[in-house]
Design brief:
The chain is an all-alpha fold. It is 47% helix and 2% strand. The chain has three domains: 79 residues, no CATH class; 110 residues, no CATH class; 91 residues, no CATH class. A two-stranded parallel ribbon has the order 1-2. The longest helix is centred in the middle third of the chain and has 19 residues. Zinc ion binds next to loops. This is COG4 transport domain-containing protein. InterPro entries: RNaseH-like_sf, RNaseH_sf. GO terms for molecular function: nucleic acid binding.
């Protein structure tokens, strides 16, 4: 049933919680649980325990060693260039609202104009960077640089501070990727090549370890649910509409047939129209009591498959049809 909405099972959530908590204890060197899970357990009757379960899940997900190589870093004065005013972080460009809603040409022109106007090449040295981070895109790295809590970018912040000592002013300016800005495209290509090389640093922060755990569980889930369709139109619907369509698709709903056959709730599986089962096929497709509503929503006859697995528009109509006769689905 998890395949339709793309949800984790309770078992997967339990696994994630155990292995995340185990990894967290490994990172907290002064926590009593850290000593407990690191030392060899005393010999005693075999029974399920936290350490054994976590290690078993860790092994089954084929996760790398997530123990921290170095003790947890403490926060440095943040941001380290606070006393120096010559570093500025700019995370937007005038006119650029959302990358998704704008075409590439438009983004290219706005970015190029901004660079030429604000940072003319006869006064500025432009250095293009593509920051690869477990945190996501370059903007989130800039957010992390401003944050007082994020320790993952300590080294980067220190490097920027050192660099700033050699310049009269340093600006970290975000620009959108893949919009044909020459230096940026080269940086992208080099980052891609670098990402494919063997990574020799295995210093996992707790957040990095959590990302690896999530991604391993996600990969495992995809293997277990090959029929899941991430492009399913159901993901474009509102939450309420998704619930309705999901209940119709899976048959786990509050129509009389399911309630009676599964839980013995109600006076029987029959529909008030006399049909011998009120279920997810009968209500949208066959019930004569709903003929008027059906004609209103679907003037042309539609196959059941289109009503439940069609486009977002079709699915929206199906959900609206179900609300209209005041049924409890
Ligand atoms: Zn009926």
């Amino acid at each position: 049933m998890e395949s339709v909405p793309g949800l984790e099972s309770m078992e997967d959530r339990r696994k994630k919680k155990i292995v995340c908590q185990y990894t967290k204890f490994q990172h907290l060197a002064n926590h009593p649980m850290c000593k407990l899970i690191t030392n060899n357990p005393r010999k005693r009757l075999k029974r399920a325990n936290f350490t054994a379960s976590a290690q078993q899940i860790h092994k089954s997900l084929e996760l790398p060693d997530l123990r921290p190589d170095t003790p947890l870093q403490s926060s440095i004065d943040w941001p380290p260039w606070n006393q120096q005013s010559q570093i500025e972080i700019v995370k937007d460009i005038d006119g650029v609202t959302s990358k998704k809603s704008m075409i590439k040409r438009e983004l290219h022109c706005l970015t190029k104009n901004m660079l030429d106007k604000k940072y003319p090449s006869n006064y500025w040295i432009r250095a293009f960077h593509r920051w690869i981070s477990l945190r996501g895109n370059a903007r989130s790295v800039l957010d992390a640089l401003e944050s007082t809590k994020c320790l993952e970018v300590n080294a980067l912040a220190q490097a920027i501070t050192t660099l700033s000592l050699t310049a009269s002013k340093l600006v970290l300016q975000w620009i959108p990727g893949h919009v044909d800005i020459f230096g940026n495209d080269v940086a992208d290509q080099l980052a891609k090549e670098g990402g494919m090389m063997e990574q020799i640093q295995h210093n996992h922060s707790y957040n990095g370890a959590k990302t690896l755990i999530n991604s391993a569980l996600d990969c495992h889930w995809r293997q277990e649910h090959p029929q899941h369709n991430s492009k399913d139109a159901i993901h474009k619907l509102s939450r309420a509409e998704q619930v309705t369509i999901c209940r119709l698709r899976t048959g786990h709903n509050r129509l009389k047939h399911h309630l009676f056959s599964r839980f013995r709730i109600g006076d029987g599986p029959n529909c008030p129209c006399g049909a011998n089962r009120q279920d997810a096929q009968h209500v949208p497709q066959d019930c004569p009591l709903l003929d008027d509503a059906r004609l209103k929503y679907w003037p042309e006859p539609r196959e059941m498959n289109q009503k439940l697995c069609g486009s977002a528009l079709q699915l929206g109509i199906t959900a609206e049809f179900i609300y209209a006769p005041d049924l409890t689905i």
